[in-house]
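Narrative of activities, Objective 1.

The group set out to show that a structural description can be obtained from nothing but a protein's sequence at a throughput compatible with the screening campaign. Below is one input-output pair from the validation batch, recorded exactly as produced.
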Amino acid sequence: MVRIAVRTLTLNVYHVGDDNVNRYITSSPHAEYFSNLVSFFRKQCIELNKLVSSTLKNPDPNSTSTILAAVDEIEDNLYYFSDAISAGIPDIGRLLTDNCLQLLILPLLLPSLRMDNVNGIEIGAVTSLYLLCCILRIVKIKDLANTIAAALFCPPEAYIPHFEAKLNGFTSGHGFTHESQLLDNNTAGEVDGECLRVTVSDMATSSHVHHQDLVTQNDCNGSHLALREALLCYITTGDDVQVLGSLSVLATLLQTKELDESMLDALGILPQRKQHKKLLLQALVGEGSDEEQLFSRGSSTVKDGTSTELDGYLQRLKEQYGVLCSFLERGTSPHVNRCQVLDALVSLFCRSNISAETLWDGGWLLRQLLPYSEAEFNSHHHELLKGSYKNCTSALLQEIRGVWPDLLITVLCDEWKKCKRVIEASSPRKDPKCILLPVQKSFSEDVISGESSFTAGDRMCESVKVFVLLLQLQMFSLGRVLPDHPPIFPPSNIPENSRARAAGLDISGPKPGTELRLVDAVPCRIAFERGKERHFSLLGISLGTSGWIVLAEELPVNRQFGVVRVAAPLAGSNPRIDEKHSRWLHLRIRPSALPFMDPSKSGVYNKVKSKALVDGRWTLAFRDEESCKSAFSMILVEMNLQFNEVERRLKPLLDLERDSDFSNLSPRPPKALSSNTTASNSL
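Output recorded for this entry:
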């Protein structure tokens, strides 16, 4: 309350608008208030990092709320900075910029982005990535944003005074001690006053240098990597949280209006529409080498103001903050840097250990940068995406014959719309704070009797999300317009000789209390409660992409008909004849829907998610071994009919893998199903 009262009072003073008052509050010793403010903020950042680190080591149910409370305080401080700046007093913006850079960003946040682990560091890379996003997003100061962007071209050691050679109180094993070590690391350094001068060579000089090659040359764990390259290394080799944090920083830089477009261009993340605007303006004023520059495949050198802007901020880092980090005379090429970013993003989509949610964030960033030419997004990129898409197609085919094929098309259509909205959105969908929160694990996989259907459902949704993303990105990269719905075949008519038609089943499926013809039904016994055995007739029925295992009671007056008492999903039933009792048939009974897809059950799902949810088990007893085998065979046949129908409807999408130009997105008319088609008996 005291803090809020003081800040309200100071904001009222800042908005007085009198020059004498403005000079008074920004002169010594009153200006120390701003350095104390930033010092207090720095302590909060370190405390936040301790919370995040503690949560990673010892997850706790209350950790999310604790982290969010700390995040709220940090963001409140930043909004106070923003409110103070909005008063329009230039010296306040300068004081906040200088103190943020000198006390927090340069000595603490940027050095912690190094790839190698350093003991004794006061703040972790993930926390630093979040804080950089927050500062850029909330504190609207042009000089601060551009200085942070320029600082990304320097390695972490550029911020360490040579006489300390320490990073956050720890003596680095990668400190520049000998001249020979500098030469071995492909850098050249010299001591200048109290600063460490680092000259970084531009290693990538052509559009054919791919990011994996850059990683090989530079070694992601090397201390000589520029921070910009470290961000790209996080994308190509980091874990899920590091990838998300790095993508968040790049997306935040791209969305920061205070950042000069020339700095975005130097970083390699200038959106394609702005790149075209820049080249058009150059052509109009005659700055380009010729009129064809606008439509050229990109130049390897910079002839506009990019180098001037970047050099200006690097010079400011040298003069005001004692950081020397210069490039060789060739300068840095935005075209080459853009290719490096594209290489890193494409390599991200080829990784199988990154969550679909994070890949979607990478898809949004790639969509912002995606050029419609073969200059930067070249055939090599297309081949990598096609290879990854082929792997996803194989995974999708496995899911078709998995536990949830009846929901696969529904999930795919839903995720298609969501993914299209995400990657076509004007801004990223996630708040940067999500990288600090503990990852919610999926259902426990240590189920005693095999994989849980809930785990399989999570995996199916994950596979569908990645498949949809890769397909849409390929279409975008080729300049295609995405349809609102995925190109799949419509449902087919029910064959005349199907069990569903013979049983008199309609599209709504078997509901308890409805009557069915018991054609091919097999009598069986089952006990849902101990000591209470009941007699039923078992039917396995598939209807399009749906399927059920039905237990019906015969009607006393007409034994050819029965009343449905219980119906369970056919898919995922995993029928198995008991090894010791050949008249027993074991079935796994999964839910009819995934709980996280039902909004009405989302609260219950979140409460029990940490526990191992298990499936139901049925053991059916038949009068003889032949009856048991007959029931087993019937279930397999109907499951195969269900699988085949799902695969038939998805065939246009699966065939796109062979269609390199994706030119034909309209589904071909489905072939008529033959009335004599017989399903295979085996899975």
